[in-house]
């Protein structure tokens, strides 16, 4: 039965299709058990019955919440927790002095490190902030398509209590809470290149709303997006980010001033709480979505407006100078707050760690941690509404300290405040207790009966000790902390049966796939003359005994060199290649390997290239031939590899990871972020120094920019276009098709030039083709040529007038900004080429290597359009690396005995699978959601459209890794050509041409393989099979690693995202290899 299964997988078209189906099935089974989500309950909390005729007023009747998307903790509080990276052009700290001074106050404000749960996307953070619940990991899939929140939440409770709420800014609030607002001003949130539209719109309506308090009641939300967009577009350490932070700081200062105007006795804002916070953080590169410390750490500053006014009123000298609200950051306490300060002791006192900046896990923070889910119960209690039913957060005692001045300045104020805190915490505990019991009783949920019984027993003790305020506070806090821990543990229970079934199926498919790739090892019918090591071949009988096929060489060893009397044993090239693939697969299980996986993959590819060059070099020397070409190709492959690693590879070793891992050790000096301003900046600095030394820097800036851009972008694009055209010589392509290809590459080059010129202020934003031609290009043309072009345009007017549709289209194109026009030109050209390619492939006019190369060329043009400016150079280096490897493999095939080149085809598949992994990382990507290059979704459009923008982001992320796989047929064809061109020497000739015993072995193997030739179709199938096996093995290791490490500290920050990306890459690789099989 095993042989029949292997035979089915070996069928050219059916085999890849079955592998795709089996891989998807195995992954689906694993995902079903691995990514479980909690059950959402429909219950709503209600206010408990009270016997009082008039219940006491809640501490606050209004909350103004300024939310700044992606507000990093060190934007507001700069202590030992985070530092500016060395060598940064602009330090991102210290640009919000007013907000930082508010955060430092302890008389009327409290500041916190606002800690989020992964995933750190806005939609999931807003859900958690409103419900107080825990997210599930793959809620990130809904990040762009938020629907109405059907769980009980804080806004629903406020609306049910008759509060008239309002919000401004990010439209996600309107999507999650469509019926809760009295009025709203939503703005689209996905155009990350637009830094100001949303913020300006918020500011246009915010101050008028504050000056008209009758227009809202309960909650006013202003959600700014500029900081988040600035990080995505320019990075944290940029001048744009510094300017945006200063603007936000100014907004906070004006909002405080507006609130203080009406915060007097009986004023609208006398009992108002101001919150300034982020929803998550961001990395130094401006990304977020994962669970690294930089992404989950944000800031929250809470200010009691009434207490702040009283404090400022006590500063008579400052008030007399007319400083008013501007003195809010002085940090001094006035006379009105002195009594409250004297009463602040014990639970009412600020955390002692604030004084010496010893807060946090590492004891290096000036502000303590506050979990985001703790805010929902705290705000509910402060506003006097029931806590949302599904809340698992714990009311913050320190944030509750802001209510202390409302109890007066008497000696009993602390006692009354402790009683209010105890009552609020007890209500919080009752809500969590009710929720957990309801959840455990719901059908379809899994909750430990023992854990629930222990929590219920602990809750019974709370009710017994409710009369003692201090003891009740301590017990409630302990109960709520343990309840949250139990809930986290219960909701990270995995479907072990489904996971194991998926892994078993995946392993079985992997074994069958390996058997199909190395069929001789299973059937015992290896092709005769299979190579057992680099320069020694075995005959048919020996090959069958050793298992035959490409696998036979894995156990071969060869004495490569002699040092004095010592002979050094080294593995055969194929054994070395298999060992490298094994190291890559096993490395996925290591936390530290994943932190620098991009660099490690480049190192492994370099090791294989070196081993290949040494293997071919020795075989060339044994054959008595010149080594110059082999040495040149080996050096070329290694240098291209090194440049790709330096220019493009990103890595996970961000500051946050190192702080958590090494606690107090500083960030590594070479820990730079990805992108043009990262390591490519080193190359730019070197080029600038060389230009200065040569005196070129004295040229006009426009000339220097054009020269630099041409060298790093335009020339690589032209080289890629020329190289891919050369690879298709002799194919059945018409002149129109070739012109469309060249036009697509030219459009990409023009777009990158215009983008660079606009960024550096050489061209205006919104530049149209009409303005470019009339104002910028026409003055540069000779007068006669300009007059001739004008006359030609005038002559064409009647013809255009005869076709009104064409005239309207031309007018629209001329009025369209170039930053939108050029990408759409590229997309249209690629779409036309795709249609032509499909027609030719369907009619079999284009097939094999020619069809695959044409598809790669089309994909390359589209990929360049949505990639960063360094992508053309990196992709050119990858093409040169593949060319060098192909030449070495072809040379190796020439030196092997006839009939054994099918083994080299397997080497081609394995090597290109490694290069595909390398190219994914070399183009600046990471296996984490924070590594997604979101700007790709907006190339050609200022608005976010789910399918279009999502497709562009997918192309940007995974397009690079598909290019080496599409190059498989061309490389195999090149190896075939080298094999077919070599002569078939007889045994005597081979023995004379060799040296000593090696020549005799070569002669014997040649005689054993005489008359046997490799089938071209067999070689391509072998390459496809081995490439698919390498991709599947890596994906299986990532899947198994995610299952084994599911309770690791960084499971959701590293291992789960690594599995997610590996699964997507496997499916796309299977599709690409299926396409190659159909084209063969």
Spatial strand arrangement across the major sheet: 4-3-5-1-6-7-2-8
Distance between the termini: 28 Å
Helix-strand makeup class? mainly alpha
Radius of gyration: 34 Å
Q: How does the overall form come out from the CA principal axes?
A: globular
pLDDT < 50 stretches: 140-144, 327-343, 520-564, 653-678, 986-1014
Specify the oligomeric state.
single chain
Portion in beta strands: 5-15%
Give the biggest sheet.
Answer: 8 strands, mixed
Percent in helix: 55-70%
Mean pLDDT: 80
Number of helical stretches of at least 4 residues: 44
The count of β-strands is: 10
Short recap of the structure:
This protein is mainly alpha-helical. The protein is built from 44 helices and ten strands. The model is unreliable at 140-144, 327-343, 520-564, 653-678 and 986-1014 (pLDDT under 50).
Q: Could you walk me through the main structural features you see in this protein, from its secondary elements to its overall organization?
A:
The strands form two sheets. The protein has an eight-stranded mixed beta sheet, with helices on both faces. A two-stranded antiparallel ribbon has the order 9-10. The protein has 44 helices and ten strands. It is globular. β9 and β10 form a beta hairpin. It has 1080 residues and is mainly alpha-helical. The protein starts with a helix and ends with a helix. About 11% of the residues have low confidence.
Question: Mind sketching the topology for me?
Answer:
Elements: H1 2-9, H2 14-34, E1 62-68, H3 73-76, H4 97-104, E2 109-115, H5 122-131, H6 154-160, E3 165-170, H7 172-176, E4 181-187, H8 197-211, E5 218-224, H9 226-234, H10 239-261, E6 272-277, H11 293-296, E7 297-304, H12 305-313, H13 316-320, H14 338-343, H15 353-356, E8 369-371, H16 375-383, H17 397-400, H18 413-441, H19 449-464, H20 469-490, H21 496-517, H22 519-523, H23 540-545, E9 557-563, E10 566-571, H24 573-587, H25 591-595, H26 597-622, H27 628-648, H28 655-662, H29 680-694, H30 701-726, H31 735-759, H32 769-777, H33 783-802, H34 804-815, H35 818-842, H36 848-865, H37 871-895, H38 901-922, H39 946-966, H40 968-981, H41 987-993, H42 996-1009, H43 1016-1044, H44 1051-1079
Parallel strand pairs: 1-5, 1-6, 2-8, 3-4, 3-5
Antiparallel strand pairs: 2-7, 6-7, 9-10
Helix pairs in contact: 1-21, 2-21, 2-43, 2-44, 8-10, 9-10, 18-19, 18-20, 19-20, 21-43, 24-26, 24-38, 24-43, 26-27, 26-37, 26-38, 27-37, 30-31, 30-36, 30-37, 31-35, 31-36, 35-36, 36-39, 36-40, 37-38, 37-40, 38-39, 38-40, 38-43, 39-44, 40-43, 41-42, 43-44
């Amino acid at each position: 039965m095993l042989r029949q299964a292997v035979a089915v997988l070996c069928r050219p078209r059916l085999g890849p299709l079955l592998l795709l189906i089996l891989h998807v099935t195995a992954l689906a089974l694993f995902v079903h058990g691995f990514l479980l989500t909690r059950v959402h309950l429909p219950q709503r909390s209600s206010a408990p019955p009270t016997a009082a005729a008039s219940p006491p007023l809640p501490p606050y009747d209004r909350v103004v919440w300024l939310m700044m998307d992606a507000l990093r903790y060190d934007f507001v509080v700069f202590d030992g927790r985070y530092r500016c990276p060395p060598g940064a052009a602009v330090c991102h700290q210290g640009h919000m002095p007013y907000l930082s001074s508010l955060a430092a106050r302890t008389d009327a404000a409290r500041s916190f490190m606002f800690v989020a749960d992964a995933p750190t996307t806005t939609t999931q953070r807003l859900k958690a902030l409103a419900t107080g619940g825990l997210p599930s990991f793959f809620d990130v899939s809904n990040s762009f398509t938020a629907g109405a929140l059907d769980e009980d939440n804080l806004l629903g409770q406020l609306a049910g209590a008759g509060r008239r709420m309002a919000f401004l800014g990010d439209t996600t609030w309107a999507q999650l809470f469509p019926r809760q607002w009295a009025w709203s001003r939503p703005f689209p949130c996905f155009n990350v290149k637009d830094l100001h539209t949303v913020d300006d719109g918020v500011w246009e309506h915010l101050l008028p709303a504050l000056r008209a308090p009758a227009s809202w009641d309960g909650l006013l939300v202003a959600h700014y997006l500029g900081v988040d967009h600035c990080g995505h577009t320019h990075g944290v350490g940029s001048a744009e980010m510094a300017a945006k932070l200063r603007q936000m700081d100014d907004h906070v200062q004006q909002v405080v001033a507006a609130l203080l105007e009406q915060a007097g006795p009986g004023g609208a804002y006398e009992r108002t709480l101001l919150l300034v916070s982020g929803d998550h953080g961001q990395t130094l590169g401006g990304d977020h979505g994962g669970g690294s410390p930089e992404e989950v750490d944000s800031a929250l500053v809470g200010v009691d407006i009434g207490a702040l006014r009283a404090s400022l009123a006590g500063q008579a000298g400052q008030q007399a100078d007319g400083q008013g609200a501007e003195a809010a950051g002085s940090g001094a306490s006035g006379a009105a707050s002195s009594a409250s300060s004297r009463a602040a002791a014990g639970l009412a006192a600020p955390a002692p760690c604030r004084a010496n900046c010893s807060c946090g896990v590492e004891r290096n923070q000036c502000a303590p941690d506050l979990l985001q889910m703790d805010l929902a119960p705290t705000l509910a209690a402060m506003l006097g509404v029931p806590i949302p039913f599904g809340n698992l957060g714990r009311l913050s005692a320190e944030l509750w300290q802001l209510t202390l001045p409302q109890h007066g300045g008497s000696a009993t104020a602390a006692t009354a405040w402790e009683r209010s805190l105890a009552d609020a915490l007890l209500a919080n505990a009752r809500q969590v207790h009710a929720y957990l019991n309801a959840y455990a009783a719901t059908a379809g949920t899994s909750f430990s009966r023992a854990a629930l019984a222990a929590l219920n027993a602990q809750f019974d003790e709370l009710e017994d000790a409710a009369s003692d305020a201090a003891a009740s506070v301590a017990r409630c806090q302990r109960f709520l902390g343990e309840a949250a821990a139990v809930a986290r543990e219960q909701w990270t229970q995995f479907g072990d049966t489904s996971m194991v079934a998926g892994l078993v199926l995946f392993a079985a498919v992997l074994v069958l796939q390996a058997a199909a790739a190395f069929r001789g090892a299973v059937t015992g019918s290896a092709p005769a003359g299979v190579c057992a090591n680099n320069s020694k071949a075995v005959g048919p009988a020996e090959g069958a005994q050793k298992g035959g096929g490409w696998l036979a060489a894995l156990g071969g060893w060869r004495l490569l060199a002699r040092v004095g009397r010592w002979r050094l044993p080294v593995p055969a090239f194929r054994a070395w290649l298999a060992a490298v693939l094994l190291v890559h697969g096993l490395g996925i299980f290591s936390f530290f390997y994943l932190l620098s996986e991009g660099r490690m993959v480049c190192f492994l590819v370099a090791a294989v290239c070196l081993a290949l060059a040494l293997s071919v070099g020795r075989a060339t020397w044994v054959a008595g031939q010149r080594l110059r070409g082999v040495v040149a190709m080996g050096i070329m492959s290694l240098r291209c590899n090194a440049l790709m690693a330096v220019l493009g590879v990103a890595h996970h070793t961000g500051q946050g990871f190192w702080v958590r891992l090494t606690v107090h050790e500083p960030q590594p000096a070479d820990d730079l972020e990805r992108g043009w301003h990262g390591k490519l900046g080193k190359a730019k600095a070197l080029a600038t120094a060389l230009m200065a030394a040569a005196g070129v820097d004295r040229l006009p800036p426009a000339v220097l920019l054009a020269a630099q851009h041409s060298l790093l972008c335009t020339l690589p694009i032209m080289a890629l276009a020329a190289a891919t055209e050369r690879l298709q010589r002799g194919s059945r392509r018409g002149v129109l098709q070739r012109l469309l290809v060249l036009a697509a590459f030219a459009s990409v080059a023009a777009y990158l030039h215009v983008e660079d010129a606009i960024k550096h202020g050489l061209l205006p934003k919104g530049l149209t083709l009409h303005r470019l031609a009339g104002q910028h290009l026409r003055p540069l043309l000779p007068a006669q040529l300009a007059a001739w072009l004008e006359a030609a345009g005038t002559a064409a007017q009647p013809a255009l007038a005869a076709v009104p549709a064409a005239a309207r289209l031309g007018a629209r194109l001329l009025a369209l900004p170039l930053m939108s026009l050029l990408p759409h030109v590229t997309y249209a050209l690629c779409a036309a080429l795709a249609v032509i390619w499909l027609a030719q492939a369907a009619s079999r006019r284009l097939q094999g290597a020619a069809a695959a190369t044409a598809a790669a060329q089309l994909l390359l043009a589209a990929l360049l359009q949505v990639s960063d400016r360094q992508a053309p150079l990196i992709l050119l280096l990858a093409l040169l690396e593949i060319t060098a490897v192909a030449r070495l493999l072809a040379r190796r095939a020439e030196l092997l005995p006839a009939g054994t080149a099918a083994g080299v085809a397997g080497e081609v598949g394995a090597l290109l699978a490694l290069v595909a992994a390398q190219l994914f990382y070399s183009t600046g990507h990471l296996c984490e959601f924070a590594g997604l290059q979101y700007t790709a979704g907006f190339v050609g459009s200022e608005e976010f459209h789910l399918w279009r923008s999502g497709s562009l982001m997918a192309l940007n992320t995974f397009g690079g890794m598909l290019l080496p796989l599409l190059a498989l047929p061309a490389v195999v064809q090149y190896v075939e050509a080298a094999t077919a061109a070599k002569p078939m020497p007889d045994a005597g000739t081979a023995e004379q041409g060799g040296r000593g015993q090696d020549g005799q072995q070569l002669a014997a193997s040649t005689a054993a393989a005489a008359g046997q030739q490799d089938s071209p179709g067999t070689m391509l199938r072998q390459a496809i099979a081995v490439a698919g096996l390498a991709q599947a093995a890596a994906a299986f290791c990532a899947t198994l690693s995610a299952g084994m490490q599911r309770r690791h500290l960084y499971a959701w920050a590293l291992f789960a995202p690594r599995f997610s990306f590996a699964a997507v890459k496997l499916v796309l690789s299977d599709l690409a290899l299926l396409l190659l099989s159909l084209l063969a």
